[in-house]
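Module 6 notes. Inverse folding takes a fixed backbone as the condition and produces residue identities as the prediction. Think of it as a translation problem where the source language is geometry and the target language is the twenty amino acids. Below is one complete input and output pair. Work through it position by position during the lab.
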């Protein structure tokens, strides 16, 4: 699989990135440890070298599984993780990083990201200069190689860059969720920040595997996802029917068509999760789907029949 430079670094990442939120199990159902471990190894064999996790996914459990799956293959992979909004004081950042290093069985984190801005989820407000100071220290010590942010606005990125270099942004971005294109995508293009899109398949909606009447159990995070609620869900189902002939034309799946569209956008890589080996191998095939300008325009038009109706709030879930 081709690789791309991460921001202004010399770190090479794959356009498809293995996401491990589900590996932490919290907010997900029916996820098995051994299946996830095998999925990560299968993804690596299929050419995905880049893996994204976070300390908050299952309170460190996801990072532990990443360590178990890839610890003995560390020289072959790029590891990205995130520090949560409640650990943004300088000493907390340092401690969180040390714990993540230990869980992932590594001496260095390639990309260390601020998961949510200070103050999110009622966390204590910490000056960004303090957080960035700790991240810069970790970078100087060789514990991390690059600094990224997730769920930041343009103003928040601009403030952070006053205190150090930011090489990436991790926002929600998919065919059915495109708020990033208004301000953040042009900013990232101008400043050479790599976008690591999360929920790249709209939490599975873009695979087309959920029928019109599908209901998620309340402990599944998708039960709170705005795209799975009326009237957006019905609009998404109609759009998927229009996308099917394009996928068939390219001898690919709906999900891989959506991923191919996403990684064709400027500066954009796509984080995509998998629960098992079969899904991991199938996702990797999206990198080989080549879309013409006409294809991209047709897909774009269909996408907008959903995104035109989205709320302006950038958060994808009704956390309540």
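Target side of the pair, the amino acids:
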């Amino acid at each position: 699989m081709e690789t791309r430079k991460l921001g202004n670094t010399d770190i090479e990442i794959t356009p498809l990135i293995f996401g491990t939120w589900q590996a932490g199990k919290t907010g997900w159902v029916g996820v098995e440890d051994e299946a996830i471990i095998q999925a990560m190894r299968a993804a690596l064999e299929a050419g995905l070298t880049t893996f994204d996790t976070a300390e908050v996914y299952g309170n460190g459990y996801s990072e532990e599984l990443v360590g178990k799956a890839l610890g003995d293959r560390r020289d072959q992979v790029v590891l990205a993780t995130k520090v949560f909004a409640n650990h943004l004081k300088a000493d907390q950042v340092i401690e969180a990083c040390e714990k993540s290093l230990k869980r992932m069985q590594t001496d260095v984190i390639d990309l260390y990201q601020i998961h949510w801005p200070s103050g999110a989820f009622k966390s204590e407000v910490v000056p960004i200069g303090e957080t960035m100071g700790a991240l810069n220290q970790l970078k100087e010590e060789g514990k991390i190689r690059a600094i990224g942010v997730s769920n930041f606005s343009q103003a928040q990125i601009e403030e952070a860059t006053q205190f150090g270099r930011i090489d990436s942004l991790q926002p929600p971005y998919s065919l059915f969720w495109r708020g990033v294109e208004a301000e953040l995508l042009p900013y990232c293009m101008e400043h050479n920040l790599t976008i690591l899109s999360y929920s790249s398949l709209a939490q599975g909606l873009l695979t087309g595997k959920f029928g019109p009447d599908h209901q998620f159990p309340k402990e599944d995070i998708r039960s709170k996802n705005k795209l799975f609620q009326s009237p957006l869900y019905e609009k998404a189902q109609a759009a998927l029917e229009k996308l099917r002939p394009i996928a068939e034309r390219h001898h690919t799946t709906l999900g891989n068509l959506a991923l191919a569209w996403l990684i064709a956008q400027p500066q954009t890589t796509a984080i995509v999760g998998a629960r098992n080996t079969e899904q991991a191998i199938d996702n990797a095939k999206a990198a080989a789907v080549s879309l013409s300008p006409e294809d991209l325009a047709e897909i774009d038009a269909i996408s907008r029949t959903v995104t035109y109706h989205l709320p302006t709030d950038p958060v994808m879930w009704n956390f309540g």
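Reference fact for the lab report: The chain has a mean pLDDT of 96.
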